[in-house]
Structures are given as structure tokens and as C-alpha cells.
Model the fold of this input.
Amino acid sequence: MNLNINIPDKLAADHQQNLVSLTQEVQTGIIVWSYLNGHLSLRESAELLNISYREFVDLLWSKGIAIDGMEPEVLAKQVEQLRTLL
Done:
């Protein structure tokens, strides 16, 4: 699906030379937002970004998002999913 969005002039100027980077940043932001709102699991988010589970956790940490603040049931489900991957 394609989505057209208006980019503020400041961002457009900063990314004029590398629109691929801007596109990737927007896609990452949407996936992280969807994860934080409970629409995607850690595993699903990593797969959509084409990175490993660990890389997605590291990405969250780099943005100041701790996964240990989850509800116990959600965290248990995430851990179980991780165990099945290992």
C-alpha cells in the first residue's frame, strides 16, 4: 500500500538527498507505533523491518523504549514466542 504524506519543509530539506532514508525512517516509526499500541508483537515488528528479534529490541532501547514496562501477560507471551524461535 502506498501512502502520501505531507513532510514539513525542514524535514524535506534535510532528506532531499536521501529519500530512501526518510522512507525507511517513516516505515520504522509506523511499525514501532503499531508495536507500542499492541497491534504487532516484537517478532512481527522485527520481521516487518527485516531485522532480528534482538535488533528490534535494541532499536526500541535506542529510542528509550523499555520492553520491561509491559503487562506481565504480554511479556510472558513475548518470552514464549522468543523461546519457540530459539
About this structure: The chain has a mean pLDDT of 82. The chain has five helices and no strands.
